[in-house]
Design goal:
Blueprint (H helix, E strand, L loop, with lengths): L2 H21 L4 H18 L5 H35 L1 H9 L6 H19 L4 H13 L3 H11 L7 H8 L6 H9 L10 H35 L12 H22 L4 H19 L37 H19 L5 H6 L3 E3 L10 E3 L6 H15 L4 H14 L1 H19 L10 H13 L7 H12 L2 H19 L3 H14 L5 H10 L6 H29 L1
Helix pairs in contact: 1-2, 1-18, 2-17, 3-15, 3-16, 3-17, 4-13, 5-6, 5-7, 5-8, 5-10, 5-11, 5-12, 6-7, 6-22, 7-10, 7-22, 7-23, 10-11, 10-21, 10-23, 11-12, 13-15, 17-20, 18-20, 19-20, 19-21, 20-21, 21-23
Amino acid sequence: MSIFMLALMALVPIALVLVLMVGLRWPATKAMPLAWIVTSLLAAFVWKMPMGFIAASTLSGFGSAINVLIIVFGAILILYTLRESGAMETISAGFFDLSPDRRVQTIIIAFTFGAFIEGAAGFGTPAAIAAPLLLGLGFPAMAAVVVCLVANSFPVTFGAVGTPIWFGLKNLKPQVTADIANGVAGLDPAGFKAFLQHIAEWSTLLHAAMIYILPLFTVCFLTGVFGRKKSWLEGLGVWKFSVFASTVFLIPYTFTAFAFGEEFPAMLGGLVSLACVIFAAKKGFLMPKENWDFAEQSSWSEDWVGTIPSGSTTLKPRMSQFQAWLPYVLIAALLVLTRLESLPFKGMLNSFALSWKHILGYETVNFTMKPLYLPGVIPFTLVAIITAFLHRMEKPKVSKAWGDAFKALKNPTIAMLFAVAMVEIFKQSGNNPMDYQSMPLSMADASAAIVGNAWPAFASFVGALGSFITGSATVSNLLFGEFQYGVASSLGISHEIIVAIQSVGAAMGNMICVHNIVAASATVGLVGMEGLILRRTFPPLMLYGIVVGTVGMFFVFML
């Protein structure tokens, strides 16, 4: 069978998910199991994989998905714990007196606060937390959702303690290791960990231009679409503060990636920038000369408002700001202590591992879990337990936080199990008696033949497509990481830069991710308006992809 026919066959499950979720509006809980079934059938009848091999790959995928779900659970648990203790309300109340200018509020809450939450928790939580805050401040519901979705993009590459990279690209380890052993040019001989380090570094450089462009674009979009005068130029009135916010984010974001790798850039970049912009706002530093606000609510378009009235939220501090932020400080401290190579804690946590080697007798199919090293356990769940004592939470509130966290995990569990199982079959399909390339490499060879050296200009849109159809930047990297690496191999260009572009694309796809749109719109009462939200987040996605593609082409062919 020709490589182009194999590529078309491999593309069928991905196209199916796209049709089911976009065209027919199926939820991921239904679309992903069906995509797994189709992938299994293709593996069995086209790639001629034994059914036992497919079953083993599925079990390995389920195990890997559990690793991610533990992180998701811990992230949700800490958020719900802070909600029940009153800490989240206290944090929210602290934003209300910073500035009456809606453009400044957008930068502080949608950009810097959202970036910190993404780095600490990820998985769609920033928009779902920040959008209600903006709604409470008096934003139209539609504006609140759109600006939060758009602004939460570049932190996503490193969301939830770097999960999209260290877990999302884990399937590349055998190929990278083999290529290093064979002396493939452009790969660091230090090994796979160094490869991920370089992915983190290149990703920050690829994001850099948009870190300056996107916040200002977002406030211009806000004034141009939701303002009295419908003037994009009014957004430029806050350009000094926007550039300042981008700078104080980019410096720690990039430094952390180069110094420590993929786990801390978004969280520490968000934390440092949040502290800086709050201080600047309180001191009136770089504030616009005139405050900008929306027109009266009576003049708002019907599709701007949801079932929850704008500005209706009454927030009261339930504790001191220090107490409210202390759990996040503990999370950051524990992450640093348990991730630094120079300290003994990383080795201690990694020493306890659960593994299943050669699943069902198949040598290439394995599963490993290091539960104590998963951030869902330490620090998220650990800090949630500590917070119950620090905030003197009553037992019913603790029980509610844990109960709601388990309930919130139901739908992501179904979708994640079958999505990662599908990806594992994709990966293992190279082990077949027909001597066919694996599904990802078949698509890679065909794409390289069609697009050629222009691929860096298109690679980010593949990453965005992965996030759009799977609902996760992590799963997008799992799904398309090998594909992107294969394209780089076929074209003889930098593997590191192309895979970094994939990671950046998966992050920018966060703004059109159906799961995130549904979650964020529900928090502001815009259920049923997902299609309109998607149409408004699509133009900034295209801008992002064009800029990243241009920068990527420069890095690949000019450096």
